[in-house]
Design a protein that fits this description.
The protein has about 350 residues and is mostly beta strands. It contains 3 helices and 27 strands. Strands 1, 2, 3, 4, 7, 8, 9, 17, 18, 24, 25, 26 and 27 form a 13-stranded mixed beta sheet that branches. A 3-stranded mixed beta sheet has the order 13-16-15. Strand 3 and strand 4 form a beta hairpin.
């Protein structure tokens, strides 16, 4: 039987236990979150953990959460304390590096012809409170046009980029030279750089698949709205698919109407795939992040397939060990290019 180990750093303090840990990362959300549940009466050198006039843990404290089996610890979350809720037990709510970009509003303007990289170089600070912020884009030269930003935080600007251009923004943990660091990604839905594939097998390390449904493409009701944005920030839109279906919106940069229709048709075929929809539960390893590929190995009751990972909820508890609830989104063939 595997032994569960953990290491949690909050501010200047480091400890190896928690009542519960819950981490959520999702491509549809700017912010990944982590909730730590700790014993209420825990003290450190006679100081209470979160109560009184001088608690040892405070809002804005830097947080690193690692856990795994038999001493093999994996960095699962890096961020900051957002709120501390005293109670029985104490709950510490944390946000990833997006927490830094929700501070310090800016006011500025951009002229016509501004590229995505030019905008981000101004909007995204290089450091916040001494913490370095790095970003990458899928395409630096995407035109975002004229912008007037009036007392908006960087995070608010990233929200507007998604509304106007369908550009997703989120941090992802990237290992580099034996160090794991958060990197902000701005681009289409799924991060490509550093994407990895892990294998999950029905009846082996998939321990609960009751919420995972296999659907044939013809049974999936969907419609696609395809939007093309040109260098002058003008839009063209088309919509195809099932009139009563779930709407999926896709964005393209500087394509003509004929190309937009062709791509919308391909997108509809891609979204209306024969494959798995829903979630499955597995153990703590292999540990996935959003955008990674989960390769599902089937049996006579379950077909095999490879899927991009949309959302993961990770939990560690003293009673249940480590579990991941994984939501696959769409089938993938090419590990290095599909977004």
């Amino acid at each position: 039987m595997f032994k569960v180990d953990s290491n949690i750093t909050v501010g200047d303090y480091e400890f190896d236990f928690a009542v519960d840990i819950e981490i959520e990362n999702n491509i549809d959300s700017l912010t990944d979150t982590c909730k730590l549940t700790l014993p209420r009466k825990f003290e450190w050198n006679l100081q209470t953990i979160a109560l009184g006039d001088d608690p040892i843990l405070k809002r804005k404290d830097y947080v690193v959460v690692k856990y795994g089996y038999d001493g093999n610890l994996i960095t699962e979350f890096i961020g900051f304390v957002k709120d501390i809720k005293p109670g029985t037990p104490v709950t510490i709510e944390c946000e990833d590096y997006m927490f830094l970009l929700k501070q310090k509003p800016i006011t500025t303007t951009f002229k016509a012809g501004t590229t995505l990289k030019q905008l981000l170089n101004v909007v995204i600070p290089k450091t916040v409170d001494g913490y370095k912020v790095e970003f990458k884009t899928l395409d630096d030269n995407i035109q975002v046009g004229e912008w007037r930003i009036n007392n908006c935080t960087p995070a608010r600007v990233l929200e507007e980029l998604q509304k106007k251009f369908g550009l997703y923004s989120y941090f992802r943990l990237i290992p580099e030279n034996n160090v794991v660091k958060p990197v902000l990604y701005v681009g289409w839905a799924y991060w490509i750089d550093g994407r990895k594939q892990d294998d999950f097998e029905f009846g082996y390390n998939i321990i609960n698949s009751s919420d995972l449904v296999y659907k044939r493409a013809e049974d999936v009701r969907l419609k696609v709205k395809a939007i093309s944005i040109n260098e002058k920030n003008k839009r063209q839109e088309i919509e195809i698919g099932d009139g009563d279906g779930e709407l999926r919106t896709v964005h393209y940069y500087k394509v003509d109407v004929a190309t937009l229709k062709a791509r919308a048709k391909k997108d509809l075929e891609k979204f209306k795939y024969s494959g798995y929809h829903g979630t499955f539960i597995t153990f703590g390893e292999p540990s996935l992040q959003k955008c990674d590929v989960c390769s599902l190995t089937g049996n006579k009751y379950h077909p095999s397939g490879k899927y991009l990972t949309k959302k993961i909820v990770k939990k560690l508890s003293v009673t249940g060990g480590i579990r991941q609830t994984i939501e696959p989104n769409k089938q993938v063939n090419n590990l290095s290019t599909e977004t």
